[in-house]
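[Automated response] Your request has been received and processed.

Submitted sequence:
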Amino acid sequence: MNVDDYAGHGAWTALASARDALDDINKSGDKPAIERLDEIRELFGAADGYRDGGDPMLTGRAQLDQMNNVLSQIDGQLRAYSSNTNMGHVENAANLADALRAAIIALPRPIAGGRAQADVTRAFNAYKEELDKSRDGLAQQLKEAQDAAATRESELTTQIDSLKAEVSSAQQAVAALKSQIEGDETRLTTALKENGDLFVRAQTDRETGFQDWLTKQEKSFADLAKPHLSGITASEASAKEQLDRISTLRTSSEELAQIVAGDIMAEKFEKSAQNERVVAYIAYGVGAVAVLIGAIVIFFAFGWFADHTIRWENIVLKIGLTLVLGSLSAVAFRFGGQAIQRATAYRRQELDIRALQPFLADLDDKAIEDIKTTFIDRAFGHAWEPAAQAAKDASDGSAQDMALNVLKLVLQELPKNVKP
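Generated structure:
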């Protein structure tokens, strides 16, 4: 077997695992188990000497496989004992000592000189001595822990006895209290039984007296209330009359409020119509002034009252000014026409509101509600849209006519007055 196969064989892994399991048992402080496994511990030390000092060339795989098998069985028994502390597993592991010894003997002896062997022996003895010391220390700690547990057990026993005495005393007190309660219950039952008849008779007398008092009070109340009954009846009739009068007044107030609200709204529409008409007149005035100025500019543009020839720069400048004035007048006339239409719409809305209330006077509530709903849907909540475009068409036509007239005049005068 080569060196790598020898060093990597599973027997050494099984040996390390079994030694870890044995160390766990040593740490537990279980003295019988530790003493029973002393031989196994020494055999582990002997096998460990073959791992580094053995001769791989003289060692066969079958020999290491045999030792690996035995070590695996011992490892399983030791770990089983660590799980359930059953001494049967310790016995099984100890019984495998001969098998492990035979497997170790089958291996070639390590090749080492006398000095190396002595060093190994000393190291092994030192390890064993340290192990014995550790085992004795653990045994001492276990004994101390057992003594402390015994002391604690004694203290707990004393406390339990004290608690038992207190519980017994409390039970006696509860029994005495129970006896006292039973005696009080007996006396109370006797008293209730003896005084029951007296209580019933007294209660009957009280009920009879109360009924007699109620009868007298009822008769007395009827005698006392009869003189005031007519006054109460008259007050009730007066109250009903006042209520009817208030209801009538409320209805009249609501109708008056509706009339006043309609009049206020109509007044607002009237004021809006007046404002729109003022705006329209101002726009018409601006348009008329622009037309007048444009006519004057055209009149002088071609030199009807001048004795010199018209030049191109003068023509372009004055025609441009004339077109601007014409556009301004067209916009002013169009804006004025739209303002007139809005004023007419506001005036119509005012007349509708003023005429609505008198026509609703003789109708029932359902018809009034339907008419008002229809009127509101038609009159409110819509953007302003002119009914006709007469003003717009007229304004646009005026602007177009003015532009055509200016062009005609320019074409007529250019051949006469423009210098070549």
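Summary generated for your ticket: The radius of gyration is 65 Å. Confidence is low (pLDDT under 50) at residues 387-400, 413-420.
If you did not submit this request, please reply to this message.
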